[in-house]
Give the backbone structure.
Amino acid sequence: MPIATVNPATGETLRTFEALGPEEIERRLALAATAFGQHRTTEFTLRARLLNRAADLLEQDQQDIARTMTTEMGKPIAAARAEAAKCAKAMRWYAEHAEDLLADEQPSAADLKDSGASWASVRYRPLGVVLAVMPWNFPLWQVVRFAAPALMAGNVGLLKHSSNVPQTALYLEDLFRRAGFPEGCFQTLLVGSGAVEGILRDSRVAAATLTGSEPAGRSVAAIAGDEVKKTVLELGGSDPFVVMPSADVDRAAKTAVTARVQNNGQSCIAAKRFIVHADVYDAFCERFTAGMRDLTVGDPMEESVDVGPLASEQGRADLEELVEDALRHGATARCGAQRPPTLDRGWYYEPTVLSDVSADMRIHQEEAFGPVATVYRAADVDEAVTIANDTPFGLSSNVWTRDDGEVQRFARDLEAGGVFFNGMTASHPALPFGGVKRSGYGRELSAHGIREFCNVTTVWHGAEPAGDR
């Protein structure tokens, strides 16, 4: 895949970039190692000042970087501006909280009884150079939610971004440079996927984080495992959206539309499988389908557009294959299931609702990365849980119910990294984010995320005999 900006609204290649050669990669690795030696001992107050400065600059650049993201991967311009604003808020959150999140922990004297220690502590020390392999779908947010905690912890970052968002990737390096972070603290590597293994195996790289597809995650995990290096993986998702009889069906259906088509349906945490109790199935389907049908599809630079193009021609072809397979096996298309007839350029696909979905369809087990929803009918709580968990993924989940017993049941039994009640899944700096099963492992954000790339160090001091004092 060439490193290039290709506008998915038109299919036009706007800019191409040369991949870094071996000598430049080596120079940047050496620079990162040197930067870590300096950055690791800086005070939290300095790191916070620099990160707050980055947030200031990002807010000033909001409109320009939003247009860059929309041009490179097709998200609606309003959503692109919101993504930039969210990144600035996350930077400020970590600037404010990192020192407390990484404060030394002091076991009590009672806890240390019989340990032989006069005192002990647990310290969080930075690991070093962390390689981030990031996707195109949230090209700013996915990076910032790694970079902000990593830099505040004293680590330095190397970014291998998706090859279709090179201008966004270069912007991120420039942002941290302009904010005043020392040279080498955050660098973008314009390289193809074939260069990742050599970089990850380099002894100067301490760990890696990847957000992306399951095959990419498997590859990075295998290499890192062979090198015995820490990894955090956030992979695919096929999140359930469960609606029970006690729910506010109108509100659930309205939220379901947003939950499915956010970012043109290209979000790992987008609700994809809608599991509805039989008592409210017809009412929900009617409202949900009407909402999906009413969405405006078109040029993502237009403020009125709800759904833009998919990010790549191949992505649309993959989505079409899943829908066509489902229809061949008996699924019903309540709306969509085709390219918009009025848009003859770009990689558009109509918002789609499929019902009568069965386990023999590919879409039942594979992630639909685009504005396509599948709807299931459930007889009771047991069947809803069974359908929800019948997937290799376990990123997040959504449940709509006013029944306290059902809340406890779903929170206990859904196989996912998050359970969101009466609202849609969203990431927030204060809450850990990540999944189980083939959705990956480890956590981003919150205290859990910032500590993933820390050396959790036990500091022990023996008790001195009384006669030695």
Remarks:
- The chain has a mean pLDDT of 97.
